[in-house]
Amino acid sequence: MSPVRVRFAPSPTGPLHIGGARSALFNWLFARHYGGTFIVRIEDTDLERSSRQSEENILDALRWLGLDWDEGVDVGGPYGPYRQMERLELYTKYADCLLESGAAYLCYCSEEELAAEREALMAKGELPRYLGRCRNLSAGERASLEAEGRRPVVRFRVPEDKVVLVKDLVRGDVSFECSEIGDYIIIKSDGIPTYNFAVVVDDHVMAISHVIRAEEHLSNTPRQILLYDALGWETPEFAHVSLILGKDRSKMSKRHGATAIEQYQERGYLPEALANFLALLGWSPGSEEEVFSLGELKQQFTLERVAKSPAVFDLDKLNWLNGHYIRETDLERLTEMAVPHLEQAGYISTPLSADKYEWVKKVVASVRNHLSYMQEIAGHVKIYFDDNVQIADEEAREIMAGEQVGAVLQDLIKKVNVALTDEIKEDEARQLLKEVGKDLGLKGKQVFMPVRVALTGSTQGPDLNQVMAILGREGIARRLSKWA
Ligand code: GLU
User: Closest Cα partner for 419 from 476, 466, 362?
Assistant: First the structure.
């Protein structure tokens, strides 16, 4: 195999989406698996929709996911520049080659003329395509069209009656009839190349070995292969990765949930969970295993295990995976992630003192097992910030009606109040509850259920010892005294 060189080639026309991130990830994994080179090339020829801000957003999202690249706009490399608008001379040069060899020609048709042609074809039930009005213009005809002030585009002359075979590493052999293609524009009248032309020139000049991208580009591939042939270039290998569908089996869209990577970042998903999830959108390890670090994915990823069938975006699975990573990851990191969400919910304000930060850490530790993503934390921590405890349900009410409850709470208040500091460690809390049980001759449950309900209003929730440590002695006494 020639050296592996793959690229992710986003158009910077908006934030990085799930599909783009998956393409980037597959390219990255492929490059890293084979010790190859991963390139990020910016395809910014759509001047109206492209922006540097989107470019930044895309690169930031890639970095956040844990991807790095060997060549690209920010890191440079031997095949730069890596922004297409900075490579215009190159496209002109190769378009001139095609014009010279007769593989391309100048076309002067106006928008109106083209629209009329399209309509006429559609009215006849035919595929709308360019029928080649300017294919064989004489020099004189060209001159008079130019004298009318028309500015030409460069069109590629599609060979007649040819079949183009795409040998796809994922989809197998797919053939396309040239008769259905119609001569297509490679350079627009403003001198800017179209996607199909720029991508071929760049993939060739940048020595790309494998083009791994979304299935929606499969239909562009015959147009690209024809250009490789006309320029006398070898084609790279192609691998078109299946569409991503929503759970209802229609193409993934905003209706199915957030589509931009930054939205997941904002909601407090962990990048390694999202990367793990994206890898499983089309690739499978061949086992039941579902949790993979980027390092493991790198080791295992091959195109042979990329499925032909569409991938289904299952948010429940992402939430499950993310919950798993939230439980596994370092508490310090989780706390950093939680702070903006807690602040946004109005529970804390930054900067936090060192003591308060330690306290927030305990809060996070107590609820982390219940979170699918960090934004959910606001809904779980209300119990720590609101002394006005509300009984959650009938079950909790029944607990508080128990005849031992008054004595339990009184005893605990007394025990909590003996120390001079507010702080109470989890172990001490556990010990106090035990002692109350011993004093009153009660079983564990008879003690800690009413204490739990008195402190939080609910029979369920975080570990009671953790809750007590978070509320502190004063907080505990304040809440219990309302019941005692
Ligand atoms: N700029 C194209 C896109 O964003 C790249 C497609 C390709 O990888 O060839 O869809």
Answer: 476
